[in-house]
Specification:
Elements (H helix, E strand, L loop, with lengths): L6 E8 L2 E9 L5 E9 L3 E8 L18 E5 L4 H10 L5 H11 L5 H12 L3 E5 L24 H4 L2 H6 L1 H16 L5 H11 L5 E4 L5 H5 L4 E3 L2 E8 L5 E2 L1 H5 L11 E5 L8 H12 L3 E5 L18 E6 L11 E4 L2 H13 L3
Parallel strand pairs: 6-7, 6-12, 7-8, 12-13, 13-14
Antiparallel strand pairs: 1-2, 1-5, 2-3, 3-4, 9-10, 9-11
The structure holds nicotinamide-adenine-dinucleotide.
Length: 347
């Protein structure tokens, strides 16, 4: 076999010149790699030449090359460099964006950054709000098509409403239960479940009461606002069946009014779910908030309790998301799918 000429695989711009990784096919059918450093004052300097590497990138290991800027990335190096970009912590944000643009030209670099954060974080917590479920055809509360455009929350979703106007209270929750019967987890819920099984995330804390995370396969789900599907007596807490609530029956034990086991305005959050969420958030290196207006206290405080990086995913940023390190605008299902495609290139 004839030896081929040296081909440039990677060219990197350093402050004082360039670093290049080259390769050639050798006579014995192997591959040889070389690293050259061209310094502005000194001219070409051959640093090393080896034949054992799979893709030659090890030759650059003594370089924080992701902190420098890409000048050329050969097609055959793209997969290896993509892997590096997604799985290694970086120090220089603008260099990171340049690498992301060079190796994922069709992808928003901020999405690549979020994928890097997910791949490099040791403890990631996901917080979801009603916007996580709109793609499952469950309306949220505050967006243009949300429940609260039609109704004032306190008039239907409070203990006072339950006590003063049970018919209104019951018909509101019966309608939400009915909507739940037609709802299925969407691709985004499944991505979150997949990330848990791959240990990319530690837990999901949700303001949703629809149970769709668990239905999609997530196991560590903390329901901060309870569950619509659990029915109980407002007076004595005895469990009841959904049918009994739909038929406006009274509690079998005490004759009290039935209600879903969700947190009504003014009620305390379930302490177990709250404490577990806090536990994860305190040590989280990354918190991803998906589809929440962050208007409901105290769940809206959770992201701020973490010292980790924070990402906000929402399809309408008119409410602002100033305090987050990274903001991704778009539909939850679509963004999660795109992030998952990126992550699947390395896992
Ligand atoms: P919210 O209605 O206040 O805010 C929803 C947010 O999600 C909005 O900012 C909206 O722009 C965004 N959004 C809507 N669709 C989206 C999508 N496809 N992708 C990305 N973002 C999207 O909801 P919240 O902050 O969760 O408010 C909390 C209250 O809503 C809680 O009390 C919760 O129990 C209740 N809630 C739950 C459900 C449910 O379980 N599915 C449904 C309605 C309301």
């Amino acid at each position: 076999m004839k030896e081929s000429p040296w081909k440039t695989l990677l060219s990197i711009g350093a402050e004082s010149g360039t670093v290049e990784l080259k390769a050639k096919h050798t006579e014995n059918g192997g591959r040889a790699f070389r690293k050259t450093i061209t310094e502005m004052d000194e001219g070409n300097r051959l640093i090393s030449e080896e034949g054992k590497h799979e893709d030659g990138l090890e030759l650059l290991n003594d370089y924080a090359w992701l902190s420098l800027y890409p000048l050329y990335v050969d097609e055959e190096m793209k997969a290896s460099v993509q892997r590096k970009i997604l799985t290694h912590s970086y120090r220089n944000e603008s260099a990171f964006f340049a690498w992301a643009e060079a190796c994922f030209p069709k992808t928003d670099p901020e999405l690549v950054m979020a994928a890097n954060w997910i791949c490099t974080s040791k403890n990631t917590v996901i917080l979801t709000g009603a916007g996580m479920s709109t793609e499952s055809q469950l309306p949220d509360f505050r967006s243009k098509t949300g429940w609260w455009r039609e109704i004032d929350p306190v008039t239907v979703a409070s203990p006072q409403a339950l006590e003063d106007d049970y018919d209104l209270f019951q018909s509101f929750y019966a309608a939400r239960l009915e909507a739940l019967h037609h709802a299925q987890p969407h691709a985004g819920h499944k991505v979150i479940a997949e990330w848990e099984s791959k240990r990319l995330i530690s837990a999901v804390a949700t303001q949703n009461v629809d149970g769709l995370h668990s239905e999609a396969g997530s196991r560590k789900v903390y329901e901060l606002h309870g569950s619509l599907k659990e029915i109980m007596c407002h007076s004595c807490g005895t469990k009841a069946k959904e049918d009994q609530f739909i038929n406006k029956e009274k509690c079998e034990k005490c004759g009290g009014r039935l209600r879903p086991d969700v947190i009504l305005f003014g009620e305390m959050l379930p302490q177990k779910a709250w404490n577990a969420s806090l536990h994860y958030l305190e040590t989280a290196q990354l918190v991803i908030v998906i589809g929440s207006s962050l208007e409901v206290y105290p769940a809206n405080q959770l992201a701020g309790m973490s010292n980790g990086r924070t990402v906000y995913i929402n399809d309408d940023l008119s409410g602002g998301a100033m305090d987050f390190n990274l903001v991704l605008e778009g539909k939850a299902g679509e963004i999660l799918k795109q992030l998952n495609e990126l992550i699947n290139t390395v896992s």
